[in-house]
Amino acid sequence: MTSTERDHARHLDVDVVVVGAGLSGIGAGYRLSTEHPDKTWAILEARQAIGGTWDLFRYPGVRSDSDMYTLGYQFKPWRDAKSIADGASILDYIHETAREFGIDQHVRFGTKVIGANFSTADSLWTLDLQVTDEQGRTHSETLTCTFLYSCAGYYDYDKGYDPDIPGLDTFAGTVVHPQFWPEDLDWTGKRVVVIGSGATAVTLVPSMAPDAEHVTMLQRTPTWISAVPGRDKQADALRKYLPAQLAHTVIRLKNIAFTTAFYQFCRRRPQAARKLLTNLSTRILKDEKLVSQHFTPEYNPWDQRLCAVPDADLFKAMKKGKASVVTDRIERVEADGIKLVSGATLPADIVITATGLQLLAFGGIELRVDDSPVTLSEQFVWQGAMMTGVPNFAICIGYTNASWTLRADITHRLVCRVLEFMDKRGFGAVVPTPDGPLEERPLLDLQSGYVQRSIDAFPRQGDRGPWQVRQNYVLDSLTTLRGDLSKTLKGTPRRERVGASTAR
Q1: What is the pLDDT of residue 450?
Q2: Strand, coil or helix: what is 79?
Q3: Do residues 50 and 98 touch, judged by C-beta distance below 8 A?
Q4: Other C-beta atoms lying within 10 Å of the C-beta of residue 30
Q5: Residue 122 CB: number of other CB atoms within 10 A?
Q6: Residue 394, Cβ neighbours under 10 Å: how many?
């Protein structure tokens, strides 16, 4: 880098860049605006809309798989009647939050971060951007910042998992992937086969069943599914008698306590958990053989994420005869249906490949430090947020056993705490450094196929203390925002640069 280029790089456009204007990014914006009102920040959103997942996914029945009192923001009470909410309601909630707190004014739409290079000499990130206007025209830009915070999650939103299904290209009907749902799809009176058994599949089946001739969920192996109330009666009572913010706090604490206790019960007493879930499904479906064949997995509860069905809607659709579940393997797809290994054939007019998402680390940003590419798989994650080898960089990863937003908000607040730590110590850059060798463990400790397929490309978690990515909100809330950051974060002094005080 020449001296002229270095002088240019010292110019600071904004203090903090947040990548992604979804549920997490808007939450991060709130924390930055309230805890660091003196700093400049921007949210870069690749699409032309706020909402992330909840704006992208438009398939029938798309909904939360966690209660909205914990999936929603701590600072913004959820006021709708349903605890398990539909996608449109969640999107409205995100938009309302962004407007109410002025976060939407910080969002730069159509701005995708392609690469990011950190200069240790200048303690500055230079971001390579692809900017797309509303007419679809693109051009390249650069942006500099002190701290880079990825709230883009860990899914590939440009393409889903597309397994090789023999003969799919010979199907004479319509093939749909839920991630790219066509607005004009009409399934009235049609025979629909949904391939998959995850959260998307168990949402689609009861949503499409009333209008379709029949909907079949075709699964290779069963998934643990639990019926949950669509409305929280205790929450309704609390909201009736308590002020909104107080009621919201009490409901959140109640739901956090329940989900934490249930998860610990499943992990510590798996056989008892298996029996409980099996009995609950049998009580609704009233068919032990059906439950044994299609809703009793070989793995234990929470080895993979548990699928929730509000008000038992999947089971109710099955009892009405409008939906069914088949556990089998595909031999091949034919022009008018799917032939199974067992010899049976499922007739179909529409095939929906709810085969899951692909993992993609942090929006696919190509990270570099002093022009050298960062190999993510060689790094360790500290506090579930910052990485070894990459200064002034944080990632937002939610819980797998509870609402994503619970952990996301802890991470937002940790990032704000790190920024305060840097200011007080006069550091231009900080990077987490372990005090000794760490034993490698996968970042996400789930046996789900979508995790196992791609997790090797992600950074690792360690075997102890702040290097473990815990699935326990109570412990995280007690420890992550306390303690001496100087024990782990190694800093370098701040250098003077132009632009920092004038970019507000």
Answers
A1: 58
A2: coil
A3: yes
A4: 22
A5: 21
A6: 28
Beta strands in 366-475, from DSSP E residues, in sequence order: 366-369, 372-373, 381-382, 386-387, 393-395, 427-432
Neighbours of 443 (CB within 10 A): 24
Identify the bridge partners of residue 228 per DSSP, sorted by sequence position: 310
**Cα–Cα distance, 475 to 171 (Å, whole number):** 51
Tokens of 70: 């914990």
The candidate with the shortest Cα–Cα distance to 322, out of 194, 178, 222, is 194
**Residue found by looking up tokens 């934490």 in the block:** 260
Considering the domain 162-355 in this protein, what is its CATH number?
3.50.50.60
| Same CATH fold assignment for domains 3-157+358-493 and 162-355 | yes
Residues in the chain predicted with pLDDT less than 50, given as ranges, are 1-9, 500-504
* pLDDT at position 5: 40
CA 172, 176, 177, 179: dihedral to nearest 10 degrees? 160
Task: Say how many C-beta atoms besides its own lie within 10 A of residue 425's C-beta.
Answer: 15
Residue-wise pLDDT for 58-101, tens only, equals 999 999 989 999 999 999 999 888 899 999 999 999 999 999 99
What is the number of other CB atoms lying within 10 angstroms of the CB of residue 96? 12
Q: What Å distances lie between residue 491 and 46, 115, 120, 351, 488, CA to CA? A: 31, 24, 11, 54, 10
CB 363 within 8 A of CB 197: no
The Cα–Cα gap between 372 and 395 comes to 20
Give the amino acid at 421. Answer: F
Residues 336 and 334: their CA atoms lie apart, in Å, by 6
Tell me what pLDDT residue 451 has: 61
What is the C-alpha to C-alpha distance for residues 76 and 302, in angstroms, rounded to an integer? 29
Instruction: Provide the residue type at 156 as one letter.
Output: D
Query: Domain segments of the chain: what residues?
Result: 3-157+358-493, 162-355
Q: Say how far apart CA 461 and CA 446 lie, in whole Å.
A: 13
Angstrom distance (rounded) from CA 109 to CA 342: 50
Q: What distance in Å separates the CA atoms of residue 137 and residue 145, rounded to the nearest whole number?
A: 25
Has this prediction a pTM greater than 0.85? yes
The CATH architecture to which 3-157+358-493 belongs is 3-Layer(bba) Sandwich (3.50)
The C-alpha atoms of residue 502 and residue 284 are separated, in whole angstroms, by 63
